[in-house]
Request: fold
Amino acid sequence: MRLQDKVAIVTGSGSGLGKAIVKRLAEEGASVVVADINAEAVATVVGELEKAGRTAVGFTVDVRDRSQLKELMATTAGKFGRIDILVNNAGVTRHRPFLTMNDEDWNIVLAVDLKGVFFCVQAVAEYMIKQRYGKIVNISSASGNGGASHATAGSAAGNANYAAAKAGVIQLTKTLATELGPHGINVNSVAPGFILTPMTSTSRTQQEVEEHIEVRKKSTVLKRVGKPEDIANSVLFLVSDEASFISGQLLRVDGGRTDRM
Reply:
């Protein structure tokens, strides 16, 4: 097992990509902390992991709150004695056409998707610096490195806020890698393309979902859409010691998006 005796925190792991990531890390031997703002989702995922024989604890946290994050890190370190891995996955979207996007639409996305990453890394850094070891992966997005239209095949219109936040995550990753590297900490980013999750159908009809999938398939060189496991496996590599000489990098996991290469 690649992560035996490691301790990992995954934010936004109550559902979707975060849930797939936290389960994959647990499968490879890590003791995991399921951290999410949704307490019910946290309890469900922890229960599933424990049923599978994994070591997991839950923590309800809002990544916009520094005090909650400090408590998360202190509680984790107190229970397990160390924190080896942090995956910053928590995120929200508020898709609106640019001309009608308001302050609330902009602020909530930047606060969670970008500032939340900054807060989380700042909160965990003291523990990783002390042990001179740490693996941090920030989940960005294909939207953060290209300007292709978002409003296609049933997609909600406009993502200027989300694209700006995720582009910020990419640059923040590089800066953090530079500052934390001398302390033995690797910082990298993963940029998912279109990944099929339950959220795909939350704002679309079944016909729109099918149309959306076909459009996204055609935009990749592999001619398929992604699965949460595709992202989880990529994160697993970056937090393992197999990637010990990789830092400050962006790994695009998007099937070869021809509109964002």
About this structure: The chain has one domain: 7-252. Residues 21 and 232 are 4 Å apart (CA to CA). The longest helix spans residues 103-131.
